[in-house]
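Problem: given the chain below (365 residues), write out its structure.
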Amino acid sequence: MKLRRVGAMARKEWLHIVRDPRSLGMALMVPLLMLILFGYALSLDVDQIPTLIVDQDATPTSRALCAKFEGSRYFAIRGVDPSTTRVDGLIDRGDIILAVVIPTGFERDINRRAQPGVQLLLDASDSNTASIAINYAEALVGQWAMGGFAPLTEARVRVWYNEDLKSRNYIIPGLIAVILVIIAALLTSLTIAREWENGSMEQLLSTPLRPAEIVLGKLAAYFAFGAIDVVTSVLVSVLVFDVPLRGNLIFLAFTSGLFLFGALSWGVFLSAVARTQLLAYQMGMLTSFLPAFLLSGFIYSIDGMPRPIQIVTHAFPARYFIAILKALYLKGEGLHLLWVEVLFLAAYSAVIFVAATRKVGTKVA
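Solution.
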């Protein structure tokens, strides 16, 4: 292998990307747009829940509980009614998700030291939002009761790593990995297939280039654009979304490069398998987009998946890189705690690069 030939191949690929507005836009602008779009659109935070309060007691105590709901940022009060006649219609139309019913005799039961009941009626068509809403409502009622009527125990909570409890701090680091694996696989999945469709592969065959040099040359060009995407994504995550970055930047650059190399190698492998750009694009989407979203722990916890699916997730590098990014951003962890994930990334990158080189070699032969 000669670096001069690798450099010539990289220069050829670089010029092709620079001279092709579509490839250049996909390499530079699409990751930025995806990060901003998904960063604002994807959120696991549930607040401003449309709520109707039904105060059938109409006493100072019941009004105090109403004021507690009105003062919470988690509930958007759509009115305080004396009866439940409007509840069914409002829920059916989707105007409210939660109805809090304070029954008659609420204050009397409290004064008698009886256990008063507050009824919560929920629209559970969205089960996730409904479960979060009921947890918020139960916690609020419990805090109100303890603070005003049974101050027996004070709970002092200290939150580590994500003090503001913002889902954005959890989502954005994983989103960076998802975007990189999608863009990397899609960019390089077209490169060898494009050579065959344009008829330029025969010209490459007539040169002294070896398969490893072809693959490395193509990877080098796209790796440079991928590095720009990494820097841009990190800057946007910190400056635009205000996600804390507590880890070492050198370790972040190293692991990002390792992950990017493996993702690009996978794209070249797919491109060598498929001789048409359409098939290569479809294979790239199927093997990068879906696993990165569903099987990487980006949104859905891997621990909650069935055991066979948990085993399958080990085959996708996004799982390890997302774990690294979340630990880097939120916990500031380094190689001494993340060496297993780094080892898996290195092994994956090496295996896929060898597979891509051999597949290109068989195509050349």
